[in-house]
Every structure is written in C-alpha cells, then in structure tokens.
Amino acid sequence: MDAASVSTLNRHRLFGGARTTQLTGSESDRDTCAPARWSARAAAAGLGAAGLGAAGAVHALWAMGSSWPAGSRDELADLVVGVRPFPSGPMTMGVVALLGLGAVLVVCESRIVAAAEGCLPANAPGTLAAQDGVVAANSQPTLLDRALRLGAFGVSGVLMLRGLGGLVVSALELGNAATIFRYWDLRLYSPLCILLGLLSFLAVRRGPRPRSDREPDLASRVNG
C-alpha cells in the first residue's frame, strides 16, 4: 500500500462494534456531505426533539398534580384523555420517560447518520463514536446500531399511527371520548402527532451514499 496515497486508516468502535475504513487523499475531503440535506436533517431533528420535549414537560406538570390548562383534574381528563379519571402520577411519568427517550433516540440517530454521510466528525457529541475513529459509509452496523435505528424509526411510526388513528377515531366518533377531546384531537393532538412523526422520520432517514458503491474492498487496498 502506497503510504503517500493514504491519509487515514482508522478503526471505529461503537460500544464494542468495530468498523474499519480507509480514505484516500481525494476521499478524505468528506465531500459526500450535502449541506442542504444536513441542514434539513438538523432542523427536523431539532424541531422533532423540541416538540417531544415540550410534550414531556407538560406531562410532567400533570404528573405532579397540575390541572393546567383545565380548571380541575376531571376537566383535564376530558380535555386531553377523553375519559375520566385522569391517569395516575406514575403512569403519566411513564409517558414523560417515553417522550424523553424518543427525543434522545431521534437526535442521536440523526447525528450518527450525519456522521456516516460526512457532515459531522465521527467523534462529534451525540454520535456515540470513539474519539480515535471515523464512521465508514459502507461499514457493517453493530447490534446497538440496529437497536438505535429501530428505536428511532419506532418513535416515528408510533407517532404517525397515533395521529392517523386519532383522526379516524375522532372523525367517526368511535368510542366514548368526551366531545371536547374529539374537538381538540381533530384540530391539535392528532395533527401534531403526525407532524412530529414526519419530522422524526426526516431526521433519521438515510440519504444516498454516492461513494459506497465505488469504494474498493479494504483487504484489496491494503494488499495493493
């Protein structure tokens, strides 16, 4: 292997999963990054996480006994749940934890994808990468990689299902939900869930990787 033609040969390790990549001088410019796509991904991740965080903060208030924005807990149950009584504090805190986890999954996975596309350093905060590694666009995902990705897409899928299902149920007046809940479900809750689900999807979906099909096999490059 010609040392002058090789700029980097690093081993990336993500929670025990080894990834190896080799970048030649022309490839080391990280030109696979599409700034417009990275900006859109960052905006989607930020807005999605902010929305999930805001929802989590409101649920935390309810878990601590607040009835805002209703006048009583029963009125709050009619407004945001559709049936009485309002869920217990521990159950509501469970929702807070899930919303927080969802926000973290979306942000972390969006940054991992951005690093793989060359838009972030592999050791950037939130990419979960080792300090001495780089992320190869054609590297094999570890078990944790797959779990993070599945979780991030799960967040998007659950939100979309909640939104679309809520529109159908409330529009057809299925079940015994309070009238005021149906009103706001059609105008706020379900559309917001669909929006957050779409933002989460846009944040974690992978774009085209133009170099992955052109990179030679590492072993052949080392032997060459």
Care to describe what's here?
The chain contains 6 helices and 2 strands; from the N terminus they run ββαααααα. The longest helix is centred in the N-terminal third of the chain and has 29 residues. Helices cover about 55% and strands about 10% of the residues. It has a two-stranded antiparallel ribbon. About 30% of the residues are buried. The N and C termini lie close together (about 5 Å). Strand 1 and strand 2 form a beta hairpin. The chain is mainly alpha-helical and about 220 residues long.
The gist of it:
The protein is mainly alpha-helical. It has helices at about 35-65, 75-80, 90-115, 145-170, 180-205, 220-224; strands spanning about 5-15, 15-25.
